[in-house]
Amino acid sequence: MDLLAAFLDIILHLDAHLLALTQQYGVWVYAILFLIIFAETGLVIAPFLPGDSLLFVAGALCGMEALQLEWLVPLLVLAAFCGDNTNYWVGRLIGLRLINRANAKLIRPEHLAKTHAFYEKHGGKTVMLARFLPIIRTFAPFVAGIGLMRYRLFVLFSALGSVAWISSLTVAGFLFGNIPVVKNNLTLIIVGIIVISLLPAVSEFIRHRKSNQSA
């Protein structure tokens, strides 16, 4: 419980923690942010890391001149893109290995074929829009790799999604994060960002559950 409380404190008070890191580590905070964004998008075991709220707060710190927006945006775009591609290849290599095993039960060939067909038809927009959905953005490239989505198509939409996601949230933080009403209620803003970003996934889960119950 103490660990959970500490984690929630970090998530809900990102502004204070990130500002403290900036003051303590200086330019090395860019490396810390790079690693967090890379892990949140590139490691299927790390969907719990802050993403949207972290970007907004980092942008707000750029407005305070604690960080530089012209350094932050391209660096985090690179982190998101590298994380996406790492996740894709992990999924692709693990998926192929499981399929080639005679006793593979985790992933069946017919399931892989359906996944592949889905990503061939909807993969581009799925990869791009998943950027704005926490948890889903961690698993989307992994599933794309397992589904053998064409890599050239994946790279294109991964790059577009990375630029759109990073730039929109950091610039929003830069423009609005230091407006007094926003700055004085930043914890509520962070909670709001988390809730809004989770709404599509929750809605889809409820719809899918109701559909299964009806069936």
Provide an overview of this structure.
The protein has 215 residues and is mainly α. It has one domain (2-207). Helices cover 80% and strands 0% of the residues. It contains 10 helices and no strands. The N and C termini lie far apart (39 Å). The relative contact order is 0.14. The model has no long low-confidence stretch (mean pLDDT 77).
Question: Rounded to an integer, what's the Rg over CA atoms?
Answer: 19 Å
Report helical residue fraction.
over 70%
Inertia-based shape: globular
Number of strands: 0
**Low-pLDDT residue intervals, each spanning 5 or more residues:** none
Instruction: Kindly estimate the percentage of residues that lie in beta strands according to DSSP.
Output: under 5%
Give the integer mean of the pLDDT values: 77
Q: What is the first-to-last residue Cα distance?
A: 39 Å
Furnish the topology, listing elements before pairings:
Elements: H1 2-12, H2 14-25, H3 28-42, H4 52-63, H5 69-100, H6 109-129, H7 136-146, H8 151-176, H9 180-183, H10 186-214
